[in-house]
Amino acid sequence: MVKLVKFFSLLLFLCPIILSAQTQTVRGVVIEKSTLEPLPGATVIVTSNDRQFGTSTNEAGEFSVPNVPVGRCNIFVSMVGFVPFASNNILVHSGRETVLEIALDEDVFVLHGVTITPVVDKERPLNALAVVSARMLSSEEANRYAGTFGGDPSRMVVGFAGVVAANDQRNDIIIRGNSPMGLLWRLDGFDIPNPNHFGTMGATGGPVGMLNSNQLANSDFFTGAFPAEFGNALSGVFDLRLRNGNNQNHEFLGSVGMNGFELGAEGPLSRETGASYMVNARYSFLGLLGAMGIFDELGGAIPEYQDLSARINIPLRSGNLSWTTLLGTSRIEQNANFDDPEHGWIPGERGENMLMTNRQVFTGVNYTHRFSATTRLENRLSYQSFLNRITFDGIEYPTGEVFPEIITVNNSESRVAYLATLNHRVNAQNLIRSGVGADVFLLNVHNTFDNTVLNDYSGTSTLLRAFAQWQHRFGSGFSVIPGVYAHYYTFNGDYSIEPRLGFRWDVSRATSFSLGSGLHSQLQPRLVQMFERDGVRQNENLEMTRSWQTVVGFNQRLGTGMRLKVEVYYQSLFNVPVIPDIPEESILNFGDDFNNNWDHVFVNQGTGRNYGIEVTLERFFDNQYYFLLTASLFDSKYTGYDGIERRTRFAGNFALNGLFGYEWRIGERTLLSVNTKASFVGGRRYVPMVRNTLAENLNDLHQLDYSRAYINRLPNYFRWDLNFGMKINYRRFSIEWFAEVNNITNHRNIWSRHFDIARGRYMNMYQYGFMPVGGFRIHF
To answer: Which residues contact 712 (CB under 8 A, 6 or more apart)?
Structure first.
């Protein structure tokens, strides 16, 4: 440890010696937005520190601007027949080249003599067919926002309107009062499993994200009424993209922080063809310290996890070939702590020793064949698997007698998927996108309780799907996007045909209105669908949950780089699974915990509805600062088997968020930033306990009081976070230092409230208190 301190001290001492005037290359490719075809001859202008650099794209649509000063730069791209593109405050640092992919939209107004202003890239999503409830997530934002635990994309979107996650322990994304299991995760166009460590089957979140923000390209996040190309989802879509590696120079990354130790590499496989690779590996910081024995005396649970993500991109003469992979393992062991003074153990009481291990694998290949400059076919083939194992051993206080494997969970699911997507641009006004695909699921479940087998079954099912959508842009600034999505589930013959429709009207350069409406559906978790009792499948004929969603939006630009956005929505859910044995309950209340109990008989007799209004006032980063203010007022209700309407578990009713950041330039080489975020969110609802006067043993003395299901809420959630960052550019490398203070006020937010039967009273479990974290990152 002493040698390590001396090394870093020497490094800091030598830093001023190796400084010199710093510049870097800004380069990239300019493509047509709908066809992804390169655009030769486009004019590219880069400005930085009152200096201007100009160039044009070559036959491959590529450009390169050398000797751009480090810091921030602006870029402007124009070409006859296309809407000009402008983006400000692009980060340039010495540790790696700044590589951009710029998509130009064909100008349908050119024949009408209308003057078009440059498009600011952050105002609209990347997907040209999305008109409502869609937001582009820039890769730089993921590292800038406070409270993201080192750039977790799931925690980053919590600041957006309509998104709630009042839980520090997990990053579940709750959208407009829907269950988080209604979210669809995508990566480079592939549907992927839950990309989080310590996740569980049927859930979409977890404590630690597997995806690394350093590898992300700009991505899209949808919160409802999404286009027809997305299916088998109810609440939203997180359409993530990995960037391609540098295809001209090898670059490396090293990082140390609370999220772990990271190593990354990228570079060319062939400079002539432009083929590139990118790979990033991470090992949990606490796990490594635990392996060194540092926490032996604490006896607490130490999360251990590792992940690896990689992408290879190979341009071909008539298309492109790419490979994406995401791997992760996680392990946590927690033993009963008989020394905890707050618990107050009672002789004869049983504690629990828990061991949980997960393994996730995703790999996919995409071959894109270009038939012409206006038509391409994307072919995606992927494999994914998820393995979840949990063991609980009982241990008696104070004797320490162990009762092995009182509970075991051994579940796994695999999927093989193929999707073909055809894109055809008829002309500047008409774009057609369609696709067909199939997903084959393989499930294995084996669970025991007190050496008795509860579940032991397996099964295979197939989902066939297809979609088609068309965009027509009128010359008056009005566009219409009709579409249809359909899928058929071979397991029980259930199917859904879902019309979708979107409108956008640009009243002026500053004002626009939008409307989106359509039907959406989602399969039930396979753990529910294939649940067996006495060797008979109980939910085999359970149908998909369906949701008709409508969103009306208004967007107003308020000067340069600022906007006001308002959306009003209504969602009507039907065919919702409910439980006859618990008529007050609904599957809409499941999906946000470490262990969901799916072992019930369900019937499609429930309904639900979500409605609300969302307001966003945002200033994109410009002139050294940004801010984002969001307010969401909403309600979420369901009807159980008893026909009574109640509020859902996720009906917090309001969410207020404020984010602000400022950046200083210190000299020619250093950028210092401060970012803060404050959230005030309605508490999550729960089912209280009631005394059972007919109980024959201690464990049955109290039971859930469903007559008051989800009437009570936990106290409102409040958290204020702050982070600091400093980027220093040296001659051949750059270093980023970062520090984050979460929950500055040490507010005691309640995570859960449960009834302790042995003590006859409620016990509160609290979320993270005041928690400082930090680290550094080096690019070279």
So the answer is: 685, 686, 688
Longest dimension (CA), the chain: 87
Check pLDDT > 80 for residue 298: no
Retrieve residue 552's tokens: 């009306």
Question: Mind listing the pLDDT tens digit for each residue in 356-375?
Answer: 899 999 999 999 999 999 99
CA distance 162 to 155: 14
Q: How far is CA 387 from the centre of its chain?
A: 21
Averaged pLDDT for residues 737-756: 87
- Closest to 518 (Cα-Cα) out of 238, 239, 231, 237: 231
Give the sign of the dihedral formed by CA 336, CA 339, CA 342, CA 343: positive
Residues 93 and 91: their CA atoms lie apart, in Å, by 7
What are 270's two structure tokens?
């062939």
End-to-end C-alpha distance for the chain, whole angstroms? 25
Instruction: Take residue 447 and report the two structure tokens written for it.
Output: 């669970």
**Is the confidence at residue 12, as pLDDT, over 50?**
no
The pTM assigned to this predicted structure is 0.90
Q: How far apart are CA 47 and CA 749, in angstroms?
A: 47
Q: Whole-angstrom Cα distance, residue 82 to residue 114? A: 12
CB atoms within 10 A of CB 746: 10
The DSSP H or E segment spanning 6 is: helix 2-14
From residue 604, give the alpha-carbon distance in Å to each of 202, 356, 523, 580, 583. Answer: 18, 33, 12, 10, 12
Closest CA to 222 of 138, 104, 144, 131: 131
Calculate mean pLDDT across residues 743-755. Answer: 86
Name residue 582's amino acid. I
* Mean pLDDT, range 477-496, rounded to an integer: 95
Residue 157, classed as helix, strand or coil, is helix
Cα–Cα dist 500/413, whole Å:
31
Residue 645 tokens read as 């309407």
pLDDT tens by residue, 265-292 = 999 999 999 999 999 999 987 766 666 6
User: Percentage of residues in the chain with pLDDT exceeding 70?
Assistant: 90
Among the ranges given (11-15, 323-327, 564-568, 603-607), the one the predictor scored with the smallest mean pLDDT: 11-15
Q: Check if the beta carbon of residue 586 is closer than 8 Å to that of residue 640.
A: yes
Q: What burial class does residue 478 get, using C-beta atoms within 10 Å of its C-beta: 0-12 exposed, 13-18 middle, 19+ buried?
A: middle
| Nearest CA-CA partner of 619 in 70, 84, 73, 88 | 88
Q: Beta 717-729 vs 734-742: how paired, if at all?
A: antiparallel
Over residues 221-238, the pLDDT tens digits come to 999 999 999 999 999 999
Contact (CB, 8 A) for 238 and 184: yes
Do 13 and 24 form a contact (C-beta atoms < 8 A)? no
What per-residue string of b and e applies to 570-589 under the rule 16 or more CB within 10 Å gives b? bbebbbbbbbeebbbbbbbb
Q: What is the pLDDT of residues 118-156, one digit of tens each?
A: 555 577 888 989 999 999 988 777 678 888 877 788 888
Distance CA 110, CA 116 (A): 8
Q: Which residues pair with 238 in a beta bridge?
A: 185, 221
- Name residues whose C-beta falls within 8 Å of residue 40's C-beta, 6 or more positions apart in sequence: 57, 58, 59, 60, 61
Q: Which two tokens stand for residue 171?
A: 């990053």
- Which H or E run includes 218? none
Q: Token pair for residue 503? A: 């409108």
Residue 451 CB: number of other CB atoms within 10 A? 10
Of 206, 120, 193, 122, the closest CA to residue 160 belongs to 122
Q: Are 710 and 648 in contact (CB under 8 A)?
A: yes
For the residues 391-416, what does the mean pLDDT come to?
86
Structure-token pair, residue 739: 């520090």
Check if the beta carbon of residue 306 is closer than 8 Å to that of residue 281: yes
Q: Classify 765 as helix, strand or coil.
A: strand
CA-to-CA distance for 151 and 200, rounded, in angstroms? 22
